[in-house]
Amino acid sequence: MKKLVVRKIKIFFLLFFSYINKNFSCGCCDECWEIFYSDKKHSSKYSDKNKKLDIPSIIGEEKEEEGNKIEAEENKDYLESLLEDISKVKILEGDFFTEKKDIYEKDKELGKGFLGVVYKIQKKKNGKFFALKQIDVIKHFNIGTSIQKEIKNMILLRNEKNIVKIFDVYKQERSSDTVFYIIMEFCENGDLDKLIVNKNFIKEKDELAYQIINAVYSCYKKKIVHRDLKPQNIFLDKDWNVKLGDFGLSDNFKYGRKESSESGTKHYMCYEKIKKFEHNPFKADLYSLGVILYELYTKLSYSDGEDDEYTENFYTNKNVERKLNKNLKDEKYKNLKILLTGLLQQFEEDRWCWEEIFASEFYKKLDDVYKNK
């Protein structure tokens, strides 16, 4: 009698197990199935119809991949069009286009970037001005990759409203080095740094702030990290429109990827960079954005009066609050202070992301006023 009961229990569990396997896809019992039914196929392991497919995500991934391929082809074609006449250009003397004197003439030095010197040049045919960046690459000195990234990222951003446009690229091979020439949009009104210290500057700060935020977001959309956001790299064209430039330290990143690079300018670096911690490079750019906006509205250096060593106290949220309350006292700065508090958080996990920036009252009000301007 006892044996019969045990046998019935075994049969019950055997039938139950078979039912479960037939009706459900189990990813964890392959081993069990092979032990009990070595001559049969396990549905979860062998049957395609039992696989669960996330159709929307697959379609989304395929569309994104297809879009990336199309964009890559467009950028490749665009770069080839920029470089197509390099073989026809011969630069035999000096450090400029000696064979193109009938087209361009060098005017004056505008400034120095991370990788080279920038000159103002003029096209003789129509009198238009351009900016030319000259980069000397000493043989065996490994900055070629940085130049390629700068050119590539400027091409990726060429259709963005608040980014300096790239028009042409030339290369000159010399015995001791290689020289790259990048012809870009010329910004007649200089850089933001000069405006911040100009006491007579009365341009609407809100419009500049709106365009600066959008310029940084343009980079984020293309997965580009600028790495050296500061007023000196924000330029203004003849109509006082913001143009973000100098992509010499920029790189292309997947969202969520971390890095340990200390690239940038110390006064605009976040806590993680100063401490040489691994960090999210997009969040590091957002910290720099916060510092720029603070300086735009206060006309003060964010690091003014601070120790060059940038102690722990400098980055604390308490110190951020003290600075904002001291230098942005007026009630009209209430929404700006909320935004800056979010951007200047000491730790990146607390720092605002783009969703929070766009949802802020400060940005929404600017968007209402300047979106269609």
- The top-level CATH class of the largest domain is Mainly Alpha
Strand order of the largest sheet: 1-2-3-5-4
Helix/strand order, N-terminal first: HHHHEEEHEEHHEEEEHHHHHHH
Task: List the total number of helices.
Answer: 14
> What percentage of amino acids are in beta strands?
5-15%
Low-confidence stretches: 22-56, 84-102
What is the number of strand segments? 9
**Helix fraction by DSSP (H/I, runs of at least 4):** 40-55%
Q: How many distinct folded domains?
A: 2
Overall geometry = globular
Radius of gyration: 29 Å
Write down the CATH topology of the largest domain: Transferase(Phosphotransferase), domain 1
User: Which class best fits the helix and strand makeup?
Assistant: alpha+beta
User: What is the fourth-level CATH superfamily of the largest domain?
Assistant: Transferase(Phosphotransferase) domain 1
Distance between the termini: 91 Å
Question: What summary fits the major beta sheet?
Answer: 5 strands, antiparallel
Quickly give the CATH architecture of the largest domain: Orthogonal Bundle
Mean pLDDT score: 77
Structure description:
The chain is an alpha+beta fold. It folds into two domains: 85-185, Phosphorylase Kinase, domain 1; 192-370, Transferase(Phosphotransferase) domain 1 (Transferase(Phosphotransferase), domain 1, Orthogonal Bundle). Helix content is 43%, strand content 14%. The protein has 14 helices and nine strands. It has a five-stranded antiparallel sheet with strand order 1-2-3-5-4, with helices on one face. A two-stranded antiparallel sheet has the order 6-9. Strands 7-8 form a two-stranded antiparallel ribbon. α9 (281-298) runs antiparallel to α12 (334-343). The radius of gyration is 29 Å and the shape is globular. The relative contact order is 0.07.
